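Thread: "does anyone have the structure for this chain?"

Original post by V.I.:
We have the sequence but no experimental structure in hand. Need at least a predicted one for the grant figures.
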Amino acid sequence: MIKKTPNPVDKHVGSRVRMRRVLIGMSQEKLGEALGITFQQIQKYEKGTNRIGASRMQQIATVMGVPVSYFFDDAPGSESRSEGFGESQGSDYVVDFLTTTEGLQLNKSFVRIQDAKVRRKIVDLVSALADQELKSA
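Reply from O.Q.:
Generated one for you, tokens below.
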């Protein structure tokens, strides 16, 4: 039996659902309850294993307080991607990172820092650590 891989757009939309859900502090169970489905179904949506239908997408957007278009921002094959000197299409790593627990925690904590100089020092520190990792590899 051949295992079918999820469509890249379905994976992207699912990752955006997960990112938004975690950003607003909602569990898969709570989202499932709000939609009248199980948390297992939410897991399948977030992994891109199951496609999200139009009416369900509208429900999810309403529950999460975003427009439906939010879930398609920077989706594979979308025309809104930068060309030429813009950011390369390989920037999916940003979305991949932001959907991890560490990425979300870092982002939520970072935006709470009010002092721009402190934020700049944190960026400099992380950059220096990353450069040090590259040199030692």
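V.I.: this helps a lot. The helical segments are 8-23, 28-35, 39-47, 54-64, 92-98, 101-112, 116-136.
O.Q.: and DSSP finds seven helices and no strands in the chain.
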